[in-house]
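Fold this: protein-glutamate O-methyltransferase
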Amino acid sequence: MTERHDNPHGAWALQPVLEMSNDEFHSWQVLLEDRTGVVIQEQRKAFLQTNLSSRMRELGVNEYADYYRQVTDGPRGAVEWSVLLDRLTVQETRFFRHRASFDVLERYLQSRLQQPLNKPWELWSVGCSSGEEPYSLAITAAQVLEDAGLPAHYAVTGTDISLNALSKAREGRFAARKLEQLEAHIAQRYFSAEPDGGFKVLPELASQVCCAKLNVLELAKAPMAGMDVIFCQNLLIYFRRWRRREILNCLAERLAPGGLLVIGVGEVAGWQHPDLIPVADERVLAFTRKGKL
């Protein structure tokens, strides 16, 4: 197995991935699950090896055990741990991923207009990655309110464990290919073209979106409460089944009465919560919380 680098200089151009023993792999599995809840299965060992050895080579570290000690070395290790997480976090996503979920969101928000808008809608993207999902939530809310002739009375919070992903989300800059699947009028309404060929979210939309670091294992410490909408898609698949239910139970408690929880289809089976009612749409996995809006 080899690893290619863009750096053309000598040995950096093509180097073997460091071999990892079963004991070493197990140690890294345990560390990642303990700290993030993410489970690295045996079939993803090559993924872990490639990313670890790439970072180790940059640091001049030759042994997995030495690097393990480095990332677990108290406060000093915390900085390197953050860097490593960015390497191991899957950040590929797109705007309006799983269109049916956003159709459900749009209908839900339209139904909310039947009630007085006494406070801003609070929407939360859990595992927001580089920002496509929170901005998609913002666009949906903005359009519903704009179509009703109402001001932008909403706020979107995006949370993620990756500082690198959060930096991209806050910047709000996206390559042209990211906007290809957007309807033309949406792209023109909410994005401006950049000199480098990319696009940037317009300030009026970006000002409604806030992104913050959050480990989903620490949801109990999160300040979010009384949320009108929570999206948690393409995140739970990385956790054990019992942990998925634990996360969902915590998210359910953060919903306001009448609030909407949207989960990735197929990410959890058989989960129920006494305060939630399934949304009657076979295309999605979504629930509303019992109680009046």
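The chain has a mean pLDDT of 90. The longest helix spans residues 132-147.
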